[in-house]
Amino acid sequence: MNNFEFYNPTRIIFGKGTIPDIDSHIPENARVLMCYGGGSIKTNGVYEQVVSALGDRIFFEFGGIEPNPDYDTLIKAVEFGREEKVDFILAVGGGSVLDGSKLIAAGIPYTDGEVWEIVKGGKSAKIDQALPIGVVLTLPATGSEMNGNSVISRRASKEKYVWVSELVFPKFSVLDPTTTYSLPENQIRNGIVDAYVHVMEQYATYSVNAPLQDRQAESIFLTLQDIGPEALETPPDYEARANLMWTATNALNKLICKGVPEDWATHMIGHELTALYGLAHAESLAVVLPHLLWFQRERKAGKLMQYAHRVWGLAGDDESVIRQALAEMTAFFNHLGMPTKLTDYGIDPDEAANLIEAKFDKKGTKLGEHSDITPKDVADILRMSQ
User: Fold this and answer.
1) CA-based, 20 to 30 A from 148: which of 10, 170, 171, 276?
2) Are 132 and 25 in contact (CB under 8 A)?
3) Continuous segment of H or E residues that includes residue 62
4) For the domain that residue 77 is a member of, what is the CATH number?
5) Which domain holds residue 73?
6) Are 120 and 150 a contacting pair, CB within 8 Å?
7) Would you tell me how many other CB atoms lie within 10 Å of the CB of residue 75?
C-alpha cells in the first residue's frame, strides 16, 4: 500500500427531518448566501425548511446555478457576495450547486487576480482562504458534500476543469433522503451511474496490496447494483433513497482511494464531451468508461479480473471474463436507462475523437494511472463508442 494522508472535516447530518439541524451549525451572526439551482427547492418544501432553520439570520439568495456550473454565472455570485459582505455560504442542491458554491466561497475573499485562476490551478489551486460552507443535499451523485473537489465549466471558451482544495470541504452536510422524492428519474439514474464510475476510477488500476480499499470499493459496486433499480421506483422508497444517498457520498469522500493509485481518465475525457456537446456529467462518463476499460484491458487485467470474479461472480482467467464483466456493467447502466454510446445522443464519434484529440494534443495531455493514454488513444477510445 502507498503512503497517504487522510483528512475529512465534514460533519454529516443524515436522515429524515434533519434540515432544521442546520440552525446549530451556522453562527447566529452570520451573513449567509444561500445558493441553489433552478428553483425546484421552492416547490418541494426544501426552501421553506431552510428559511425556517435560518431564523433571524441575515441571508441573501443566489439562484440559477446550472448543471455543470458556468463560471460566468458564478462570478456574478462572487461579486454579489462581496457587495453584501457575506461570510457564510449555504449550498442547497445537488453536485453542481455544491461545486459552484465552493468556487463562490473561495472567490469572494480572493484578491490575487481573476477568480478563474483558482479553477485553472487544478489539484494545486492557489487559495489561502475560503468562506465556510454548509450543505443541504438534494441529489445524491457527486460526493461533493464530503470532499474538497469542484468541477467548473466555462461555456464561453468550451472549457471544463476540476480544482481541489482542503479549504472548501463543507463544514457540515445535511443528507435527508426525502429531498430526493421530487427528482425526475433521469437525475436519479445519473446519480447512480456517477457514483459507480467514481468508484471505478479509484479501483480499476493496479494492485498495491490494499485489500481493505478493494473490498470497500467492491461493496459500493454491489450496493449500487442492488439498490439502483429500487431507487428508481415511483413512489420513492425511503430505504432505497437513503442507501443511495449514503453510498454516493462514500463513493467519493476520499476514503477508498487512500494508499492506492487512481485513474480519472474517463472523467477527463467526459469533461471535454460535456464542454463540447452539453452532455450531463454522468452521461459523458457512461459513453466513455466501458470502452476505455476494454481499450486498457491488458494494463488493467489484474483488477478487471478481480472485478469480474468478486462483483459479478464470473469464473475464469482469460480475456473473455473481462469482456463479460464489462458487458454486465454496461447492461446494468442500460437497465437504469443510461445510454453507453455517443451515437445514442446523435454525436458522431469520429468528430468527437478528432476534436478532443486535437485539444489534448495541444496541451500535451496524457491520462491514466500510468500517464500512458495518449491523445491518439483517447481518439481510438471515443471511436469505439458507437
Assistant:
1) 276
2) no
3) strand 58-62
4) 3.40.50.1970
5) 11-179
6) no
7) 17
Give the DSSP per-residue string, 251-307: HTSSSTTTTS----HHHHHHHHHHHHH---HHHHHHTTHHHHHHHTTTTTHHHHHHH
Look-up of cell digits 470502452: 291
Distance CA 105, CA 109 (A): 8
Measured distance CA(210)–CA(181) in Å, rounded: 37
Chain-centroid distance, C-alpha 267: 9
Question: Burial, 364: exposed, middle or buried (Cβ in 10 Å; 0-12, 13-18, 19+)?
Answer: exposed
What's the chain's length in residues?
386
How many Å separate Cα 88 from the centre of its chain?
23
Residue-wise pLDDT tens for the chain (386 aa)?
999 999 999 999 999 999 999 999 999 999 999 999 988 999 999 999 999 999 999 999 999 999 999 999 999 999 999 999 999 999 999 999 999 999 999 999 999 889 999 999 988 888 999 999 999 999 999 999 999 999 999 999 999 999 999 999 999 999 999 999 999 999 999 999 999 999 999 999 999 999 999 999 999 999 999 999 999 998 999 999 999 999 999 999 999 999 999 999 999 999 999 999 999 999 999 999 999 999 999 999 999 999 999 999 999 888 999 999 999 999 999 999 999 999 999 999 999 999 999 999 999 999 999 999 999 999 999 999 99
Domain closes at, from 179, 210, 231: 179
Count how many domains the chain has. Answer: 2
Q: What is the rounded distance in angstroms from the CA atom of residue 315 to the CA atom of residue 96?
A: 40
Compute φ and ψ for 370, nearest 5 degrees. Answer: -105, 5
* Whether 175 and 195 share a structural domain: no
Identify whether 235 is preceded by a cis peptide bond (ω within 30 of 0): yes
Is residue 287 a contact partner of residue 356, using CB atoms and an 8 Å limit?
no
Beta-bridge mates of residue 70: 153
